[in-house]
């Protein structure tokens, strides 16, 4: 009887999976090393290694330090470019402030995300 119950449960699970497919999207993490201070929306990062984790919905990036402690989560928009280029793109420094991180791309990809700064920060 227990064996029939297990078989029945497995068949029900397969049937439900056919009608209600589940998609599990893995989060994407990119490690970035900065050799000088840089600005991100709402925070200045000291030189060092940081982990950028893109949310499953691709609308936010969590920035963590080398110890994986989350420093900040910022909004992003998806962008693309015509050809491969640097993993991280920067905006120039203004009035002596550290340069802003504009966007980042996966290695070898033309798709990436651009960080959303408040209008006063640009």
Largest sheet: 7 strands, antiparallel
Mean pLDDT: 80
The Rg value, from CA coordinates, equals 21 Å
Unreliable spans: 4-26
Note the run of SSEs as H and E. HEEEEEEEEE
Number of helices: 1
Cα distance spanning the termini: 69 Å
* Total beta strands: 9
| Amount of helix | 10-25%
Choose one word for the global shape: globular
SS class:
mainly beta
Percent strand? 35-45%
- Biggest sheet: strand arrangement: 1-4-5-6-9-8-7
Domain tally: 1
What does this structure look like?
By secondary structure, this protein is mostly beta strands. The chain has one domain (25-121). The protein has one helix at residues 2-19; strands at residues 28-34, 38-40, 43-45, 48-54, 60-64, 70-80, 88-91, 100-105, 111-115. It is globular. The protein starts with a helix and ends in a 7-residue tail after the last strand.
């Amino acid at each position: 009887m227990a064996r029939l119950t297990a078989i029945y449960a497995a068949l029900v699970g397969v049937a439900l999976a056919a009608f209600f497919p589940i998609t599990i999207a893995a989060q994407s993490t990119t490690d970035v090393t900065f050799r000088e201070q840089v600005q991100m929306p709402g925070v200045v990062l000291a030189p060092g290694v940081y982990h950028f984790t893109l949310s499953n919905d691709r609308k936010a990036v969590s920035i963590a330090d080398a110890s994986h402690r989350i420093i900040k989560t910022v909004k992003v928009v998806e962008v693309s470019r015509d050809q491969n280029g640097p993993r991280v793109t920067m905006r120039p420094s203004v009035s002596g402030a550290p340069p802003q991180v504009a966007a980042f791309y996966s290695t070898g990809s033309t798709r990436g995300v651009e960080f959303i700064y408040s209008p006063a920060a640009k």
